[in-house]
Amino acid sequence: MNPTDYDFRVKDAVLGAQFLFVAFGALVLMPILTGLDVNVALFTAGIGTLIFQICTRKKVVPIFLASSFAFIAPIAFSVKEWGISATMGGLVFAGLFYVALSFLVRLKGEEFLHKLLPPVVVGPVIITIGLILSPSAVGMAMGKDASYSQELSIIIAMITLISTIIVIMFGKGIFKLIPIICGVSVGYGVSLLAGIIDFSPVASASWLALPNFKTPTFELNAILYMIPVAIAPTIEHIGNIIAIGNVTKHDYLKEPGLKNTLLGDGLATSVAAFFGGPPNTTYSEVTGAVRITKSFNPAIMTWTAFTAIILAFVGKLGAFIATVPACVIGGIMLLLFGIIASVGMETLIKNQVDVNNPKNIIIISLILVFAIGGMMFDFGFASFSGIGLGALIGVILNFVLPDIKIDEKDKIL
């Protein structure tokens, strides 16, 4: 039997739980940052992974789906602007955007997707996702609205940040895959010593409890704001599918095909939003763990999904995670948002986007300014702003602006 074929075995349950441990830090950090329920995020990560496996049943991909960091800033803004229920409605349609792309790929092939979303658009969109919430990261690290002193908050945030950097730089084996968990653990330990953690919510929480599910409502402004945000994670999805293919030596872009992996990711995101959970994405952390353990059997991820669903009903788990101080999260965010922005720059550099081409420099400039500057277009029936507006401007300009070849002497930069 091919080592990447689906083979469901009970003895793989422990290995599946191990992969959840690898994904756990990023999985729960996203709902913490956006005010969503951690237990719901666990539940929807498990359900989303199972949906993805059903959609890729012709050749199941050994990968786990969970909370997408690309949506942190948009969700935070949308919750503030329209509330959680309307935000979930927007995320339902963001997932359907994936689904629509999967059908376009099915009809027109993968090249159409690359034409619609070239690196010159995707790169700056990812940069804005990383930078737009940087003030909130600084605010949390500095103890804004905290009951303890600003000095203590900054010290704990810096210890958390430095610990995470050390693990990223020098960690070996499994520790290389869980720098966020390591950094948060160190910061949490220092917070315990400082006496700033309140365990009373954990004591009062039940062991077994239903996650705090939310139902979506559908408001046009929230929907139109959220749909373009899905552009960046779409490219992230393609990269992760290629990465897991390199690990297992199988071309998943051909079998089951990008049309089916995008469909699975989109449906997983929409279904997650119907429960009040964060949008899903394929996790590169788990791909790294698959490389180390050489656990290519996709059924192991089924056990990972089952473990996430079971843990979602442990009430004390969510209550305990909620005790992580804001300064610890702020310390992680200082690095995390910068890394996301760096991925956007890497996209431009890796694809050799020519910034001396007037078309490219115009697209990049306007995406950055419109998104980060907070520009808003109000059309009466709906408004566009932030990352969504920047992404939309980029897509439109890419189609309408002509490519102009310039001589060496006429270069802009």
From TrEMBL:
<protein>
    <submittedName>
        <fullName>Uracil permease</fullName>
    </submittedName>
</protein>
<dbReference type="GO" id="GO:0042907">
    <property type="term" value="F:xanthine transmembrane transporter activity"/>
</dbReference>
<feature type="transmembrane region" description="Helical">
    <location>
        <begin position="383"/>
        <end position="401"/>
    </location>
</feature>
<dbReference type="InterPro" id="IPR006042">
    <property type="entry name" value="Xan_ur_permease"/>
</dbReference>
<feature type="transmembrane region" description="Helical">
    <location>
        <begin position="83"/>
        <end position="104"/>
    </location>
</feature>
<feature type="transmembrane region" description="Helical">
    <location>
        <begin position="152"/>
        <end position="170"/>
    </location>
</feature>
<dbReference type="GO" id="GO:0005886">
    <property type="term" value="C:plasma membrane"/>
</dbReference>
<feature type="transmembrane region" description="Helical">
    <location>
        <begin position="12"/>
        <end position="32"/>
    </location>
</feature>
<feature type="transmembrane region" description="Helical">
    <location>
        <begin position="300"/>
        <end position="322"/>
    </location>
</feature>
<feature type="transmembrane region" description="Helical">
    <location>
        <begin position="116"/>
        <end position="140"/>
    </location>
</feature>
<keyword id="KW-0812">Transmembrane</keyword>
<dbReference type="Pfam" id="PF00860">
    <property type="entry name" value="Xan_ur_permease"/>
</dbReference>
<dbReference type="InterPro" id="IPR006043">
    <property type="entry name" value="NCS2"/>
</dbReference>
<feature type="transmembrane region" description="Helical">
    <location>
        <begin position="222"/>
        <end position="244"/>
    </location>
</feature>
<feature type="transmembrane region" description="Helical">
    <location>
        <begin position="38"/>
        <end position="55"/>
    </location>
</feature>
<feature type="transmembrane region" description="Helical">
    <location>
        <begin position="177"/>
        <end position="202"/>
    </location>
</feature>
<comment type="similarity">
    <text>Belongs to the nucleobase:cation symporter-2 (NCS2) (TC 2.A.40) family.</text>
</comment>
<feature type="transmembrane region" description="Helical">
    <location>
        <begin position="60"/>
        <end position="77"/>
    </location>
</feature>
<feature type="transmembrane region" description="Helical">
    <location>
        <begin position="328"/>
        <end position="349"/>
    </location>
</feature>
<keyword id="KW-0813">Transport</keyword>
<feature type="transmembrane region" description="Helical">
    <location>
        <begin position="361"/>
        <end position="377"/>
    </location>
</feature>
<keyword id="KW-1133">Transmembrane helix</keyword>
<keyword id="KW-0472">Membrane</keyword>
